[in-house]
Amino acid sequence: MAQILVLSATADKQVLPALGLLSHRVRQIPAEPANLVNAPGHDLIFLDARQDLAAAKSLAKILVATGIGAPLIVVVTEGGLAAISSDWGASDIVLEGAGPGELDARIRMAIGKANQFERSNQIHASGIVIDEASYSAKVSGRTLDLTFKEFELLRFLAQHTGRVFTRDQLLSEVWGYDYFGGTRTVDVHIRRLRAKLGDYESLIGTVRNVGYRFNTDENQESLAT
């Protein structure tokens, strides 16, 4: 069962009557940007574009630009199909008279694709989940408060678990060839990362006289930290 949010200017009428025949939880709110701030939790959004295509397109762009994090399906009439294009940013479109079978299939497909995309943009390593799309990282469900460079350093190390990198290599890969600071910068960022990782600080290991690596379970005991 999915959590469905319906955005419509006609909040007193059902946008897709067939949704009521499905087991999904459906909530409908006015299609206004101000209402999106406190919108109910949702896995998918239906946007009503049956009456005002221009307003619906504008709202669709706002949703995409602000990173809604859920698939967006636009509901249109037969006559409105010609106005729909890729710049709406929608995942799919559906006609207002769609039946329950079609709606359920579109919901499953849209959520499935979104989940697949999300997984493809995540790095899972030794209990840490790094989301490259949102530039965020979590450990045991706790979001880490990382600076941009701390995130980039963590991501790079996690992408190469078990491989040792010298400070010069990390400077080149994370900071770039045009960075003029010294290798001390790497040590400072490693120390800050470990502090923010808390109980997981040992995931970033020090290899004496060489550099750093992201630990795997197999090499935890061989490191001097």
Topology:
Elements lengths: L2 E6 L16 E6 L13 E5 L4 H13 L6 E5 L15 E4 L4 H21 L1 E4 L2 E4 L4 E4 L2 E2 L4 H12 L5 E2 H9 L8 H14 L6 E4 L3 E4 L11
Parallel strand pairs: 1-2, 1-3, 3-4, 4-5
Antiparallel strand pairs: 6-7, 7-8, 8-9, 10-12, 11-12
* CATH fold name of the largest domain: Rossmann fold
Helix content: 25-40%
Give the helix/strand class. Answer: alpha/beta
CATH class value of the largest domain: Alpha Beta
CATH architecture of the largest domain: 3-Layer(aba) Sandwich
GO biological process, one term: regulation of DNA-templated transcription
GO molecular function: phosphorelay response regulator activity; transcription cis-regulatory region binding
InterPro entries: GlnR_N (IPR049170), OmpR/PhoB-type_DNA-bd (IPR001867), Sig_transdc_resp-reg_C-effctor (IPR016032), WalR-like (IPR039420), WH-like_DNA-bd_sf (IPR036388)
Pfam family, one: Trans_reg_C
Describe the structure.
The protein folds into 2 domains: 118 residues, Rossmann fold; 101 residues, Arc Repressor Mutant, subunit A (Orthogonal Bundle), CATH 1.10.10. It starts with a strand and ends in an 11-residue tail after the last strand. Strand 8 and strand 9 form a beta hairpin. Helix 3 packs across helix 4. It has a 5-stranded parallel β-sheet with strand order 2-1-3-4-5. Strands 6-7-8-9 form a 4-stranded antiparallel β-sheet. It is built from 5 helices and 12 strands. The radius of gyration is 23 Å and the shape is elongated. 31% of the residues lie in helices and 22% in strands. With 225 residues, it is α/β, with parallel strands linked by helices.
